[in-house]
Write a structure and sequence with these properties.
alpha+beta; about 55% helix; four-stranded mixed β-sheet; about 220 residues; 4 strands
Amino acid sequence: MSTSHQPKLRFFSNPRSRARMVRWMLEECGADYETVNLEFGPEMKSPEYLALNPMGKVPALQHGDAVVTETGAILAYLAELFPEKQLAPAMGSPERASYLRWLFFVAGPVEAVTTARNEGWLAVQTHQQAISAGFGRFDDVLNTLLHAVAGKRYVCGDHFTAADLYLASYIGWSMMDGSLPKRPEFEAYATPLLQRAASVRADEIDGDMQAAATAPVV
């Protein structure tokens, strides 16, 4: 489906945030989009932005009257908006099942457990708390991630999808900040994907924007 007649995409971002994953996806799609950079603090909590995203966080995507928030949801939305890029497997296929599984796994257990670990909330986790938590224990998530990517080029069949983008982004980022340990399986999977042309281009765009935002005024 051509998007030439579609409303322009407005991408609400900050280069020091999860929005970097969405930037990569936009570049993979070859999308025509406008970036609206928001600083942490008052800008993200302004009445105008809260009307679009009551959480007051980025990323968010506006497409005409549609507003999509949450990184995984935005990735899935864009994959369907640009079907010619084949970034989502066909409906009803076994690959589609894996695609949805790993998108939601990153958005749910991976995001939650790495945040909990970084904040020190798991240091005294009890057996009952592990049962109650959707992510279980840190090692449960770690072992599941290893199972997902070990020995694989892609997690959904024989080509790159938005699920790979989400997994590779999160694994790369989390190994860098210590949220996940560096494992050969993670590095073998994520490194080639993070070197894709669209990923490199997205990093350059966000790097330039971050540098411009922090440059001293002269």
